[in-house]
Amino acid sequence: MDANLKREIILDNYQEPFHKGLIDDTSYCKVNTSSESCIDNLDFIMKMDGDVIEDIRFDGEACAISTSVSSIFIRKLIGKTTEEAKEILNHYKNMINEKEYNADILGELNAYDEIYKQPNRKNCAMLPEEAIEKLLEELNNGE
């Protein structure tokens, strides 16, 4: 993926994030994630239908990286099973941590494949992943 396409993906998802805005519905599980080194302070909510992610939404204040990663993850994970979501999350973590991963599974998330070159941005890129992972844990342990 070339640098211009990466920039376009990040900016599009930052300027017009998918599913930004929370809804008041008790059938959703909620978590907060924040950063000590950036302005990032996001709430995520998730709703499951059995083992399938029915909906994910987020809101709060965050930098371009955290906001765009959140938007892309949400589009990518709605409709996926818990196992499919965990596979995507694991490949993303591996990519961010410079370990072996499958780029085909990640799609637009590959826009962050060089975030390791900016160590101070790595945390911004990982906050949404950590929040979604925590939501999946809480929802699966709640059954």
List keywords for this structure.
single chain; 143 residues; alpha+beta; Sufe protein. Chain: A; 5 helices; 48% helix
Total domain count: 1
**CATH architecture label:** Alpha-Beta Complex
Which bin fits the share of residues in helices? Answer: 40-55%
Helical stretch tally: 5
By oligomeric state, this entry counts as single chain
What is the C-level CATH assignment? Alpha Beta
Please give a structural write-up.
This protein is of the alpha+beta class and 143 residues long. It has five helices and three strands, in the order αβββαααα. The model has no long low-confidence stretch (mean pLDDT 94). The relative contact order is 0.20. It has one domain: Sufe protein. Chain: A. The protein has a three-stranded antiparallel sheet, covered by helices on one side. 48% of the residues lie in helices and 17% in strands.
What's the quick description here?
With 143 residues, the chain is an alpha+beta fold.
Secondary structure layout plus pairing:
Elements: H1 3-15, E1 29-34, E2 41-49, E3 52-61, H2 64-77, H3 82-96, H4 103-106, H5 119-141
Antiparallel strand pairs: 1-2, 2-3
Helix pairs in contact: 1-2, 2-5, 3-5
